Structures are given as structure tokens and as C-alpha cells.
Amino acid sequence: MSEIAGHPGATAVVNESYSFACMRCGHGWEQSYEIVHHIDGDGREFVQYVVDGQVVPSPLSRPACENCDHHVVRIMRPGRVASARDAAHQQHRTPPAGPVEAPAAGGEEPGEHHWHLADLLHVFQRKAS
After folding, report:
1. pTM
2. Confidence check: pLDDT of 119 > 80
3. Burial (CB count within 10 angstroms: exposed 0-12, middle 13-18, buried 19+), residue 22
4. DSSP secondary structure of 68-106
């Protein structure tokens, strides 16, 4: 059996990432795992999840929130938390709308035109022959 660097006895190593969101406190985070495949002495396959060189419980079994330790956690494809954070930052960077000026009470300024429903509907009126 060949050895995989850094994982003695492993038959394969797969890298996977997940996004997590706590349904209790709203905390979101992302984590990447090395999923190390092994075969035990009886020939059965098993996997170990490894983060930063440490074996950790499977994130798919009973994940816990990093913030509040609650176990109602949604697991999503990678990048979901980052894209939500980016969208939130974009909303905060959008400048607020400026002041809106009301039209002058005396009528239209030269070169201005206020549209009326009739102006828009004239294209649908039949021409008399």
C-alpha cells in the first residue's frame, strides 16, 4: 500500500470546504477539511476529517456553532458565507440617495416635460381613417 504524504496508512485524501450558518445566533463561517480515507484491519473503509493537522469530528454529523455552541446549524456549499458578507459590505458602501427636489409650483421649467398617462397611451390609440 502506498503512503500519502503526511497521512500514514491513507488510501486517499480529498479536500472539501463547507459554509455554516447558525440558526440560533446567525453566526456564519467557512471551514476547509482534509478528508483522509483509510481501510481498517477488517478491510472496511473509514474517513477522518482533519483541520490544521488535527483530527476533528465530521462536520456532517452534529456541527456546533463556533459562536454559541448551538447545534442547529445549516451546512451549505463553500463560498455562501463569503458571498453574503460581500453583499452586506456592498450595501453599506452604497451612498445614500441625495435630496429630491419638488417641481416648481408655477408649472414646468423650460425644457422639462412631465409625463401623463395620456402621453404614454397615445401609441395604442387607433387612427381614424
Report:
1. 0.57
2. no
3. buried
4. T--S-EEEE-TTHHHHHHHHHHHHHHSPPP---PPPPTT
